[in-house]
Amino acid sequence: MKHHATDAHTLAAAYALGALDPGERAHFGAHLQACEACREEAAEFEATAARLAAAVSQPPAASAKAQVMATIDGVRQLPPRVPTSASALSLGDILRRRAAPFALAAGLAAASLGGVAVWRAQIEQNLKAQARQVQQQLDTISAVLAAPDARTAHGRAANGALTTVVSSDRQNKAVFSAANLPAPGAGKTYQLWLAQGATMRPAGLIDHDGTVILTGNPDAAGAVGLTLEPAGGSAEPTTDPLLLMALPA
After folding, report:
1. What percent of the chain clears pLDDT 90, i.e. is strictly above it?
2. What is the C-alpha separation between 195 and 204, in angstroms, rounded?
3. What is the count of structural domains for the chain?
4. Which long-range contacts (C-beta less than 8 Å, at least 24 apart) are formed by 41-46?
5. Which of 108-112, 129-133, 245-249 has the lowest mean pLDDT?
6. Does residue 207 share a domain with residue 178?
7. Which residue among 141, 175, 200 closes a domain?
8. Is the Cβ–Cβ distance between 193 and 226 less than 8 Å?
9. Quick check: 119 pLDDT over 70?
10. Residue 67 and residue 43: Cα distance in Å, rounded?
């Protein structure tokens, strides 16, 4: 296959994701030796891919212990049996009374184990659903980064965060990546916006370093904005933009 000098500039994302065939990888590797812009772009894509891989890890639910203890507390302890008369106790009565605490303990243990089993099944289902959602997001982000028409823009927010936007007309998607993003603070979140003329449309939330898929149609927008908003986001910006970066053309 014959390669042209202009072709190599479109291969940075695919190179970083390992999506090139051996011939293309060798061609692009040679091109990198002489092209500083492509070296920087490939390094940025590799850093983004590394952050995405770390995003799949899911911590255990903080409410796990409370759920188990609530299950145990819900088991009602039976009152002790009281003889209906003053007659002498039979051997059977004595044996039943001595066995009662052990039966109760066994019942509590069985109830606890049953509650834990239900809790574990619910947690596993939730984690599997979250993993599927994360994998779908990773697939979408990878498709945008590896698209032949992927375009990249870099910026720095007013709070010092380093930002990158990659968009693809073919995928009709854009992804936003942030590094060195300060914590938003209690009751706050960072919100992304797609600027369409004078209108700012919500495009997603981001609270820490990472990569997110911008919601909305990037083709109709001219810039990406970043503001600090109340937790949960806002219908329109309530603070001055920390970043207003033109989408790559």
Report:
1. 30
2. 13
3. 3
4. 41/12, 41/13, 41/152, 42/12, 42/15, 42/16, 43/16, 44/152, 44/154, 44/164, 45/12, 45/13, 45/15, 45/16, 45/17, 45/145, 46/16
5. 108-112
6. yes
7. 141
8. yes
9. no
10. 45
Question: How many angstroms from the chain centroid is the CA of residue 133?
Answer: 8
Taking alpha carbons only, the member of 167, 220, 179, 176 closest to residue 197 is 220
Residues 69 and 49 in one domain: no
Predicted pLDDT at 241 = 94
pLDDT of residue 175: 92
Q: In which band, very low, low, confident or very high, does the pLDDT at 57 lie, cut at 50, 70 and 90?
A: very low
Q: Give the domain extent around 20.
A: 5-54
Nearest 5°: CA angle at 1, between 148 and 21? 55
Residue 146 lies in a domain: no
Do 225 and 181 belong to one domain?
A: yes
Give how far Cα 184 sits from Cα of 11, 190, 210, Å: 35, 7, 14
* Start-to-end C-alpha separation, the chain: 29
Task: Report pLDDT for 83.
Answer: 45
